[in-house]
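Re: the request from the purification team.
They wanted to know what the chain is likely to look like in 3D before they choose a buffer screen. I agreed to run a prediction and write the result into the notebook, where they can find it.
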Amino acid sequence: MTASTPLRTALIGVALSATVLVPLQSTAFAAQTATAGAATTGTGPSVAGIEDGTARALATSLADEAWKRQLGAAASGGDAVDLRALTEGTRTAAGRGLASPVAEADRAVAAAKGLPSDVGSLLRVSLVAPAAKTGAGDTAPLVAAAPSDDDGTAFTAYDSRGTAHVLHTDEAPDRPLYLVDVDGAKAVSAGLEVVGEALAAKGLDVPAPASEVNAGPAKASSSAAAATAGIDTTLIDSVRIADVKEPGIKGDAEIFTLVTGFGKDGKPRVDTVEMPYLNKAATTYYPNQVLVNWSNYKYNMADAVMMEDDGDTNYQALAKSIVTVLLTITDQGVYIPLADAVLDAVPTSWWTDDPDYVDSWYTLAKTTKGTRNGAAANGWINVSPYFVPQL
């Protein structure tokens, strides 16, 4: 399988004028989430299907004027709103009627993504497109599931009658549009814990205490490093990605990186790195974030694979696939790049949307310093050695 994908042209503007109307029959919310226009994960509805069913149910509920005004006020600030908290806290009849189905949809999303049942609320709703916010309380809005197809040119939104509208990504909005999606930052954080636990159970990841990898405000000099006990790390001074593999209308990307190498015991290992700040394309970030903790590795070499979660990523399946591949690799006494093994472990179907391959960096050394371009030519990182004193 070829891991790299052609770079996608960034979306200009947002999706939004209706060109096709498709009458839909009213159905129960549970049936909507189970069948709404997406493939299943094999044991239940996909995240995209759950989002679509939730979007349609929310749209029809907005026939209640009081509830429509409350949603508009809650989302008018531009930030995503916790849908479960909003429906559980409202006094409107339509909003209260959604509370139980939304809670059930949240649990279905967690199951579809391989996350623990106690992860909490995941579904959220946002009012998109600044031009559409004007008069949001008076104009009949549409509601859609946030599109996950990077190359898609159209997606479906619903009005308060349950009618489907096909919206296009290259036309300006003429009415308010709400997007229903998953809290990506929360999902990635919980998902990487799932991956880490699965790897640790097989001896492929033994996380160091967080206190050992905090970079601190200033870099230590080499003389201080020699005189003080601590650990060697590689720090990301700056990073820039051309395409974050996220549809423009959906908003921020959810980026994470898998760092691979051979552990002290000679077994392949993977360390997970959350990158919540890296959410916009063609933007330079200066995180001062630890990428590699060299105390975890036998050789002074490691690889890094950067990915983006578009929604349907099942972290239990991802962990199982990676574990299955890495357990077949043995230490030959010299460093062997493992990035390709990790990429090959990802199911072929996931390269369509979830999770998206962003870029990768091979053979990062403990002494690597300066700018390194990614293998997929989609971005660069500027790194430097960084010694973390042991307090």
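For the purification team: The radius of gyration is 23 Å.
Please add any questions underneath this entry.
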